[in-house]
Write a structure and sequence with these properties.
mainly beta; seven-stranded mixed beta sheet; four-stranded antiparallel beta sheet
């Protein structure tokens, strides 16, 4: 099971921290990715972290603003989002790369004044 949380309404320039809690024994060996889908747009990849947490990748549009890390004992990954802009408004999804892949239902982030 994959459950995202931490979304909400934030003003431009603000910050949010998303969490993705994973159960079922699939967390430790897996790369985990964040995606987002804005209204009327396709889902896009945001960031990912390898199973050990030593290798992270970010999309160009979040580079320097978002930071992803994982807490393996808690089977949770986090996405710290700073300097949020209206174009960051989207539903953010967590994807566990294990087998055919596991997805959460997403958490809505709205950036608006």
């Amino acid at each position: 099971q994959v459950v995202e949380s931490g979304g909400g309404l934030v003003q431009p320039g603000g910050s949010l921290r998303l969490s993705c809690a994973v159960s079922g024994g699939i967390f430790s060996p897996s790369t985990v990715r964040w995606y987002r889908q804005a209204p009327g747009k396709q889902r896009e990849w945001v960031s990912e972290i390898d199973n050990a947490g030593g290798h992270r990748l970010y999309a160009d549009f979040v580079q320097g603003r978002f930071t992803m890390w994982r807490d393996n004992p808690k089977s949770t990954v986090y996405l710290q989002m700073n300097s949020l802009q209206p174009e960051d408004t989207a539903v953010y999804y967590c994807n566990v790369v294990f087998g055919n892949g596991y997805w959460g239902k997403g958490t809505l982030v709205t950036v608006s004044s």
